[in-house]
Amino acid sequence: MSLFWSAIRYHAEVQAMATSKKFINRVDWEKKLNDVKVRKEDLNKLVMNFLVTEGYVEAANKFRLESGTEPETDIATITDRVAVKKAVQNGNVEDAIEKVNDLNPEILDTNPQLYFHLQQQQLIELIRNGKVKEALEFAQEELAPRGEEDQGFLQELERTVSLLAFEDVTNCPIGELLDVSQRLKTAREVNAAILMSQSHEKDPKLPSLLKMLIWVQNQLDEKAIYPRINDLSVATVEDPAD
């Protein structure tokens, strides 16, 4: 019987906590939002930061002309960075490595993990194109010495080379290495390294702010019932449930 009454009391406490939340209606909420002043210049800088970091050269140029917002970096460097990114995405890794070295040789010299991943991607492309002999020679001459220096590299190398053991790589346990997503992963890594070499943040600020918004809303959910943004893609504020 005591267990029964404990359950009843717990349920009552939960209801009391729920009803004790502060209720904020839409009118009051929007008034509070309108009281927060955000400069248009700051919003423009956020947009430009996103366009530059993600490499949208044409959009950045157009936005610069329309808003008068100057990028924090030379547009020409964005073009060079995008060329490297596209080369990796298209599987032209050797060309990408050359372009990186043309931009700044220290990028790969000071980042052995990035260089290994680029060479790993180059090995994947050889396997993708059925160049078995070239793939084995490349693995032995270029990647094996790196594997001897780093156990993590060795494991990644062994995993990649094991693709050669499968006739139908699309159904093998490590077939994802041949997916477009693997190219995109490598491209993002090299893009971030180039940005950091140019003293820029590797990630745009806008997604971080959206993550912060989600976190703040989750914290506020425990204390109040309020108009909430449930779909960030449309940013529609929804009325709170009474």
Q: What percentage of the residues does DSSP assign to strands (E)?
A: under 5%
Q: Strand tally, please?
A: 4
Rg over alpha carbons: 26 Å
- What is the molecular shape? elongated
Structural class category: mainly alpha
Mean model confidence by pLDDT: 86
The low-confidence parts are: 1-8
**N- to C-terminal separation?**
35 Å
Largest sheet, strands/sense/barrel = 2 strands, parallel
> Main sheet: which strands, in order across?
1-2
Helical run tally? 12
- Helical percent range? 55-70%
Order of helices and strands: HEHHHHHHHHHHHEEE
Description:
The model is unreliable at 1-8 (pLDDT under 50). The protein has a two-stranded parallel sheet. Helix 3 runs antiparallel to helix 4, helix 5 runs antiparallel to helix 6 (93-103) and helix 8 (112-128) runs parallel beside helix 10 (151-161). The radius of gyration is 26 Å and the shape is elongated. The chain has helices at 2-19, 26-35, 40-54, 57-67, 75-89, 93-103, 106-109, 112-128, 132-149, 151-161, 180-197, 205-221; strands spanning 22-23, 224-225, 228-229, 237-238. With 242 residues, it is mainly α. Among the domains are: 73-197, no CATH class; 205-242, no CATH class. The chain is 68% helix and 3% strand. It is built from twelve helices and four strands; from the N terminus they run αβαααααααααααβββ.
